[in-house]
Structure formats: structure tokens, C-alpha cells
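Possible race condition, two jobs.
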Amino acid sequence: MTIALIIPDRKLDDLQQRLSAALPGVTIEVWPELNDPAAVTFAVVWKHPAGCLQQLPNLKALQSYGAGVDSILADPELPLVPLARVVDPALTESMLRYLAGIESYYRLRLDQFHRQQQQAQWKPKSPRQLRKLCVLGLGELGAAAAQFFQMQGYQVTGWARRPQQLSGVTCYAGVDGLAAALNGADLVICLLPLTSATEDLLNQQLFALMKPGVILVNVARGALLVEADLLAALDSGQVQAACLDVFRQEPLAATHPFWSHPSILVTPHISAVTRVDTVVAQIAENYRRSEAGLALLNQIDRQQGY
């Protein structure tokens, strides 16, 4: 039996060696150099070329190389086999550290002081009075972020598609609850999954529901954001500042206006990085489960998209 690694544009020598050590006797091959596509029963994928999985007639299961699966589900020819994602406990800690840093960055006005430095201006200012925070998306990472900031003294609201209950957090659900969740928030953090229902959700209409001068942080998926609408909202002052860690096209093109906009902080998709050891362990376990006919760890609901 063979595992195919279908992860274009990335060096896979280390992953291949680690998997070989974790699964003695199992052939680990890197697509497209597959000796026998019919021998592949399990594939590890990330941003794979649409349709390429049709080359594997005996595929039993798919494993995402990361926490997200939206790029995999976008394949119109995706085989109807179980699909799992990676869940790394350290991912939550990494995300919370990132968000805590970003919150401090804006609360202490480091964005303003950076612009003043470029102009050799000395203008002391008191910290921003950020009191209310909204988290869009209350999955594993979103729930952790909401409760973390509630413990830091924020009045926190959260929004999700389905009703949730979190201690100390006022939760809203569904389309009707979105405006209430956003109402009065000084800082909005987006941690939503990318689905057909959430694509382009961060748009002009949503920005209009937010408090004028809101600060937006998107650490979810780039396709949630309508880029032109954000630029217009920043230029009008409806959105005061935005921190973006995810983009529709990555790496972000050198000519993209986000790079030079004075109110945008760009980070290169580093808010939460999965550990290789965790990925290898979960791939190996899910391969064993697939071969034994068992349900996969962290298997996603394909209709929900997560």
C-alpha cells in the first residue's frame, strides 16, 4: 500500500522521511512521481491541483496537511472518501499569543507611532480605550480567543452559525444575530471557517454594521474578505485599521495595495503554525484507521465544510 503526498510547491523530504519512520513497510511517494497510482490508498493533500485525485482509483481516505480543508473541498472532482484535518493543541496557544500581540499593538497605538516615526514626529498619545471585542466564529480557536479576551477584562460577544454557550461571552447565532454581535465592538476578530455561506462575508454591508472606527483582524481565510470593500472602508474611516494574516492569493503579490496602505498590518500567514510532529502522528494514525476500516480522527462533515 502507498501514501501519496500531494502538496505542490513545497519540499517534502523531511515529511516523507518522518512518515517512513512512523509507518515501517508503507511506501511514501511524492506526487506526481507515483510509481503505481493504483497502489495509493491514502493521500495527504494541501492546495492540490483540481482533478488530480481522479488518477488514484483505489483511494480510501484523504488527510489535509493543515487545519483547513476549504482548498480541498473546492475541487469539483473530489472523490467521495472520508476527509480529515489536522488538529494541533499547540495551534490554539500559537493563535492566542498572536492575537494578544495584535491587541497590544493597537491598544498601545504602535501603528500610529510607527507612522509618526516615518515622519519624524514626536506626538505622545494615551492608549486606545478598547473595551468591547467581537469574535466571528466560535469553533475551537474562536471559542478559545473569546474566553481569553474575556479573562483580560473585555466585554466579549461571539457569533457563529449555530447557537453556542461560552462562560462570560454573549453568544449570537445565525444571520439575525450578526448585527447584535458586532454592535459597539471596538475590535472584531474573524476566525470563521471558509464555506459557501461565509465567503465574502467581510464586505461593505458587514462593515456598515460595525462601530465607526472599528479595528478588524482576519486570521481565518482570505476569501472571507472583499478586498476592495475593506480598502474603501479604511479610506472612509468606517474601519480604523486592519490586521490581515490571510489572503486570497498567497504569497501576497508584490504590487498588491495592502502592502502600502498606511492602516493595514500584513503578516505572512503565521498566526498559527502546525507542528510537523503533530501532523506526522495524525497522518500515521489516520492511515492505520483507514486501512482498518475505522472512522478517521478529526474527520470533517463535507456538507458543513468543516
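Job #2 (started ~2 s after job #1):
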Amino acid sequence: MAPQFTVIRDTTPDSAILKGAVVAMGNFDGVHLGHRAVIAAALEMGRAHGRPALALTFEPHPRRFFSPNTPQFRLTDEPAKLRLLAGTGLAGAVVMTFDKARAGTSAQDFIHHELIGRLGVKGIAVGYDFHFGKGRVGSPSLLANEAPRLGIEIDVQPHVDIDERPVSSSAIRIALAEGQVEEATTMLGAPWFINGEVIHGEKRGRDLGYPTANIRLDANCGLKHGIYAVRVGRGPERLNGVASFGRRPTFDNGAPLLEIFLFDFKGDLYGQALDCAFVGFIRDEMKFDSVEALIRQMDDDSARARAMLAAAPDAFPRLGVVD
């Protein structure tokens, strides 16, 4: 049985806090390979000193606080991020509310009151470019300078490069916006995924011989409109399929919707929460002159999706359980 993953929030009483832990500190949007290097450093530090290792992150994303009217394509909402963090072997996560008060907290106060005072941390792992505190004054160098006086260990991880390009959440967003899901997968270490509840649609897919499970994604989702090979998680079960994300130009050109056709599956999924991992990009969204032409293309899309998924039989993110 996997160890329990503890989530500590601003409202968590002191008696329930894992004091004396080491923390991997960051925003962790996507929990990509750069983030995982920081997490691995915290896990190693924890093992070396016999202490639990936690992630320390902020919600909402600070960018959302500072630019509330600017659309933000998040790779992972809070529940998805915590499930990914729980799958890394960490003992838990500290989720700090990023609000006006926290944005106005100086870096020194954050270190002394939050990290040392409330959490009692004994070690910190951060990425080379992580900043915190009012005016983003807090930095890895500040932590390293304070560490000897505070009696804590600091590990600063350099950037992770793939083909001489640094891995970043921004680079992954760009890849997904261009339909480069394989590139996004490489930077993430696993396919990008979403979780959502299956809703009722227009039932057109059923009439076409392709009944779909429909999920409404976040309005700010920047994924390229098109057809994808997908692997779906329903609890521990894994199901292969082909999915369309877009506006259905052949029919109504409506609001973006994710429509998933699961291979070799029969059953009612309405109201169920599914994980959908994007394994391969097949083609752009298109408008067809006839339903018959659309069906022929869907047959071809399905064959291509089956081949992509057969070539990546284990492609799925490692997700932990968050109580």
C-alpha cells in the first residue's frame, strides 16, 4: 500500500504539520522534468537525514494573482498537480494560498516565519530560477546565504535541457498549442493529461457509429484543436481511444469540447470523472462536406490512433492518491 500523501494548508493546525521536513519549493505547473529534478533532490536530502520530503507550492498560481484578467493556460490545476506530486514518492505537499497578504510578505519574513517558524524545515531544494517574497527578492542565492545561520541545507538545481533547450512550463504550453504532444511528453516525462467529468452532448457521435464521452476543458486551455490518440484512466482501468478537441466545424462551430471515442468499450460514463492522457497528435481539426467523408476520416483516425497507442503501451502519467 502506498504511503499516505499529506496536504498541509494555511488552515492546518500546527499539531498536524510534519515538522522538520525537507521541502522542494516551486509552483510545479505540470510537474515536468525540471520540477522532478528538484523533487529528486529533496527526496535524496530527506533520505540522507531520515526526514520526510514535501513539495511546497502556491495556489492559485501567482501569475493568476498578479494578472487576473490575463488568460492563463495551466498545465495542471491544483487537484492534478497534487496527484502528480503524490506519484513522485513525496510524503505530502504544503499548499500556501497566494493572496494579497502573501504577495506582500518579504522574502526574509517568509523564510523565518513560514519556512522555519511554522514548518520547521531542515532542508530546501529549489530550481535555479525560483523567486519568492515581495518583489521576488527571494532567490536561491538568498537561501544559500541564510542557510548556515539557520542550520538548514540548501540544494539548488540547474536547468534541465533536452536537445540544448531548457525544459519549462512555458515551453510545454507552446508545444501543446502547436499539437506537439510528443515533445510535451518528453519534457513532462509522461503524457500531458486532463481530468474532467463526462457530460451530455448532442449525441451525434452515436449516430455516426462513434459514441463519445464528452468533457468540457478549462476555458483557457491552449491545446491545439485537432484529433489525438488518447489513453483514458477510469480509476485503475486504462482504455485506449481517439479524441477530438475543438469546435466541430462540420456541424455547429460551437464552444471547444473534448470528445473521446473509446475503442472496444460499451457502457455509460455520464457523470464519471476520467483522466485523459494525450499520447499522439493525428491531424488538425477539419470541416467536411459530407457526413460520409467525415466517417471515412474517423475510420482512418482510429486506425492511426490504435497504431500510436500500440507503440506506447505504457504511456500514462504516474498519479498518486490524495486524501
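The chain has ten helices and 14 strands.
Logs attached separately.
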